[in-house]
Amino acid sequence: MLKKIDFGFALLTFILGVYVVLESFSYGFTAADGQPGSGLFPIIVGFALIFFSAINVLRSRIDYLSIKEEFSMLVTKRMLVILLGNVFIISLMTFFGIMLTTILSIMFTGLMIAWGGIDKRFVIQMVIVSIVTTLVLHVLFIRVLRIQPMIGIFGF
Amino acid sequence: MDSFELLLGGIQSALTIKVLTATLIGVLVGLVIGVLPGLGPSAGVAILLPFAVSLGGSAAIAALAGVYYGAMYGGAVTSILLGIPGDAPSIMTVLDGHAMAKRGEAGRALGITVFASFTGGLIGLIFLTFLAPYISEAALHFGTAEMASLMLLSLSFVAVLGGRNIIKGFATLCIGLILGMVGLDPIAGPSRINFGIYDLIDGLNFAVVAIGLFGFSEIFNTMLNKNTDLDSPDMRPTLKSLMPRLSDFMATKWSQLSGSVIGCFVGILPGVGATTATIMSYAAAKKFSKNSDEFGKGSIDGVAAPEAANNSASYSSMIPLFTLGIPGSATTAVMLGGLLMIGLQPGPMLFINNPDFVWTVFGSFYIGNLMLVFITILAIPALASIMLVKMRILYPIIFAIIIYGVYSINLSPFDIGVALFFGLIGYLFMKLDYPMVPLILGMVLGPMLERGIRRTLISSDGSFMAFFDRPISLVLLLITAAMIMVQVYKTYRKVQ
After folding, report:
1. pTM of the predicted model over 0.90
2. Separation in Å, CA of A149 to nearest CA in chain B
3. Are the Cβ atoms of B220 and A101 closer than 8 angstroms?
């Protein structure tokens, strides 16, 4: 499985290199006055990425440098759930404000980490930790450091 | 009057309640700010600026400088305990410092950071006070071609750091260079490679990417690793492991010395000094170490060298500020603002018109450097004991700190999404054996490399010979080529 992901990732970086080169031609290799243009450096780097990615694609196909560590689908799925869950929670920051979003994020992350071993005591711990941590951070960043917070529909 | 006598006079003048208090406040504020991800020395100096200016005179600059080196140590704390680099120069500390913390040696790692920071700071200060005018004059010979060649040399260290997967190292370096180009072209102006996303028109912030790449990915990797019971007795550090060791100071003396010297000379170069100094000192320490295989896995020399370089570079970066009035970094630019606000114009005349002020400030730097050692030695057990907190409680808290830290950079939730995305990328990098450091180095040094190349080509009417006609640039390019060829050859022999 990991070898397929290695191949897929190398292919993605190859596509990124192609995208950068094609995009950079529109900026111009040289400017109107003949001086180096905005596209010069991206084109060089883009081609370099294409070159190195192509080697990585080939290597991944022939298993040139075996990736030793084993890959757990279950662990990866949990990681993706935590990641996507937090992305969803953060996207609600404009509605709920930074404080409530952070509380939700702490609780969600903590419960997902402990999934399979959650008990009532841990849930209570997470509620307390999430509220106290958020309050401390809010005081530190917003009151002391005077960062402008994002206020939600509940007024905080 | 001899510089040494002037310095002694300055130290005596700095031993007033006002200057000592200002230095202490600066160091404490810097420590706290440096620990918070997303906030580095420049943010700390900017935040304390109004308070510092109200103190006036040498106390103002003593406070700002205290924030500077306090924040650098704070950044090292985050790098070691959480694996999140607080700023670009802290990246190298993450490699070995965090590895040491994970095997229960957080106290040792933090302890050697204190010793190395003190050594680097002391040597950097000696450099600043006695050699400032001479070194400034030499630094004026560094033009755009030399800067570009130095950037290339720094980036070529990826060949040294890339290890087995040198090709993957160069691939991630290219990705980093591309990330550095996202946003406005520094010379011509158009927005490039923004994937059509409005929030990327202005580019990507280094701290956001670094926090995601190192911080979130480490959290994902460690908290979900089924093979490690992070709360088992074997994994939890003992009280002894929370304490620093004096023996480590002697064991790493050569790494500290070499790092300090490299930091002194490289740190003086505007814009790139500290980051490049830490890379070069790490590479040098690895090159000359008898246990080079341990680097990247928790080598104490791998922490000592870049931390010594970082601190000595911080002082030598003030040389252009005081002697020429040219700030070499964002932090010294804010300090320049502080000097102007208290009515002083930095430059050659500052030493002539206000010698008491200059030598008192230098004296306060020595006192502040010593103050930092005592404060941080006392704080180490408390800081290192963070690793005793259960991971299922600690990591969600770290998540929250990162959310606030990343949000505070641009006040944008989009940045948190970017950090999470790079957390996924970093996780994949770990699994697929792609090194992360070249990506960050490419992102930080890439824009400077591009500016150097294009400005050199503009001034030479498009001729690449400008890089070879200048002796310093030529030497740097030859060293770069030699280093890459040697490393490629060594890797080829190993594989064979």
Report:
1. no
2. 8
3. no
